Amino acid sequence: MIMVLDSVRGVDRRRVLRWGGVAAAGVAAGGVQVVNARPGRAAPADPDAIPPAARPGGAYDRYVAKLAAEGKFSGVVLLSYRGRTVLSRSYGMADKEKGVRNDPGVAFYLSSAGKPFGAVAILQLAQQGKVKLWDTVGTYLTGFAKDVAEKVTIHHLLSGTSGLNNPDVDVQRVFQSREEVRAYNERWARQAELVSAPGTPTDHAGAEVAIPAQIVEVVTGRPYWDYVEEHIFKRCSMTGTAFVTRPQWLTDKHIAHPYMELADGSLVDAVRNLDKGSPSPHQPGKNPGRNFIDAPGDGGFATAPDLVRFAQALSDGTVLDPHYAELFTGPKHPHPPQGGGLRGGRAAPADASFGAYTLPVHITNGQWVWGRAGGDPGAGASWNIYPDTGWVGVILSNCDGVPLWEIIDQEIQTITR
Length: 417
What we know:
Layout: H1 13-17, E1 26-27, E2 33-35, H2 59-69, E3 75-81, E4 84-91, E5 93-95, E6 100-101, E7 108-109, H3 116-127, H4 146-151, H5 154-159, H6 178-189, H7 207-220, H8 224-233, H9 246-251, E8 259-261, E9 267-269, E10 301-302, H10 304-316, H11 322-329, E11 333-334, E12 352-355, E13 360-364, E14 367-376, E15 379-386, E16 391-397, H12 404-416
Antiparallel strand pairs: 1-2, 3-4, 3-16, 5-6, 7-10, 8-9, 11-12, 12-13, 13-14, 14-15, 15-16
Helix pairs in contact: 2-12, 3-7, 3-8, 6-7
């Protein structure tokens, strides 16, 4: 059963999902198109509805500029209101060796911020009747422990309530092909063990995204990366977004390189220094460049305008039928105080926070915020949708030392207060 709490039932989610005319035509500063023009779908953005802090030269703009001036931010930030870009700023270098600067057309590594694409893929198959959310792992996949195969459902996996543990990952391994990445992750997911009853919230269990991705592959007969690129990225007109390989990362000037901090405080290009690893206690020894391509269900690379296009596609039925889009973002279980996802341990806690399908959703200052963030050595990403008002916020960075969670807090407070 999918739980929707009484405390949030008062929100008309059909209204929320068509939030404020995000499908309106819009062009970003500098000529970067943010969304495709759809005349007649919404009224133009009301300038009076734009908080002064969100405007160019406002408090949020000045805050990010100060971080960049202090060497604490390299990347792109974007604020979009009802399909029109209000603020777009780029700082730092995408590739220092080649002298390529960051700009809105540069794709950044998403890390965990790309996990919701897997949930959308599953929901596309569900609305076609090809999978059922109450089906167990064993309905589609073999080789799992008996209790995992028979007790853990797709709903448990997408909602982060599988009760599975997180098998150890070989962070030192340098992968050399797509096939090697797929084979390794198929074996790795099958090492997951049931440590709590299904329905119990888990803490970032990687198998919860790996297993649905494998179900997508079995049901469609296609590699996860190819299915998502065709049925999500292409459908949403996300032309700068893809699952790229390490050779592409090294040669394509439109992809930002991750600058990873070493123990001595120096920064190195992680993709060009595969022998180096992060000293971070949260990710000891890790280097994202060692993946030939991201594990199915995770990561990917996206531009900031493309993430706005994805938000639009969720609102207008492009990528999911309205009821399934509602199912994607609907709260499934409550987080503890200050707990869960984007709001975990932050200085500005949400009024209420919940787990949805692969993303946290929360109410802050009386407004819904849907979003996902992720980080790896040298990379950070966040996208937030504000369905009550029609805002979308994107933060993409390619350098260690960026206070990502503080910037997210600043963005949320700028939009919701």
